[in-house]
Amino acid sequence: MKSEREDAAGGHRYRRPGKGGAVATLAFVIWIGVIAWMAVVLEAGDGGVEGGFLNWMGRAHLLVLHFPIGMLFLVVALEVLRFFRLIRVNDEATIIATLALTFAGAIVASILGFLLMTTESFAGKAMTLHMWTGLAVVVLTFATLKFRLSNLTSVYYYGALVLAAVFVSAAGHYGGSMVHGADYFTEYAPAPIKRVIAPDSVADSGDGQAGGEGGSVAGVAPEDENVYLDYVRPILEAKCNECHNEDKIKGDLRMDTYELLMAGSEGSSYPTVVPGDPDESELIFRITLPEDDGDFMPPDGPALTESEIAILKLWIGAGAKRETTVSEIGEAGAGVF
Q1: CA angle 320, 321, 322 (to 5 degrees)
Q2: What is the pTM of this model?
């Protein structure tokens, strides 16, 4: 039986996938099994427990993920250059081998990323989008490789290749949002571009937040300042919310709104805030641990200052209400606010 044939309609030459296609299919099936196993077993068992071999392996995701990205865009570059006849790629094995390495790298990166997500309890909007776009990259690189092995250098192959490039870019964006914040890419973008890709970022929040610790709000007497809005929330935004926001929810805890802060960590036996009792509040416990303790918060970045800790303690001791003013703290707040 011939290994190649002419397509009656379009004249394209088709090659049977052969062993390469079978190996790719087997790898894809095994990948699905591994991801399914981790989704069921790790989430139901030891998922969310930091430390150990699996956690160490998961952190290797940051070392591996750039490999399939680079290889995929190398294929895109080769195809573009060949389309415009700027280069000649006579050896079809060059592109096929590059695609195979891209597919293999995407498999490894996705498995390690799933390990990192489950062992360190990453969640949130950006995490969910990062996960699904990353998984889609594996599916699309598999499809691209299969089409290329079949010599389907038509709309199927090029369509899958373009989609893979789009999804790997999206996965990178959402991953970056988790690390640097949702507005990292758009912060310094020209206004017309920002309005298109991030319209919410150019809108005035109108929240009336103060600039930080010890600051006062224009037109408001110091004793009438709102302790939560003008002091507590800016402290949390500066020191805590990087890991506890809508896009990145570490330890099943969000602190970016009053309601979610008071709700605490889902499933935890230790309340984040106990109104009237700062010593029983997990928030105060974590931020006052020795900095070399594994449970100290924040784990990265500058620790809370003594003044910031004092403000949080005073606010919680006064009942941790949203409407508490400086004057209601009383003499205990003298020299702190």
Answers
A1: 125
A2: 0.67
* 337 residues of the chain, pLDDT tens digit each: 444 444 433 444 445 556 788 999 999 999 999 999 988 887 655 445 567 888 899 999 999 999 999 999 999 998 888 888 787 766 678 889 999 999 999 999 999 999 998 888 788 888 899 999 999 999 999 999 999 998 766 789 999 999 999 999 999 988 888 877 777 777 788 888 777 766 665 554 444 444 344 444 445 557 789 999 999 999 999 999 888 888 888 888 999 999 999 999 877 889 999 999 999 999 999 999 998 898 899 988 789 999 999 999 999 999 999 999 999 998 888 888 8
d(CA 233, CA 214): 12
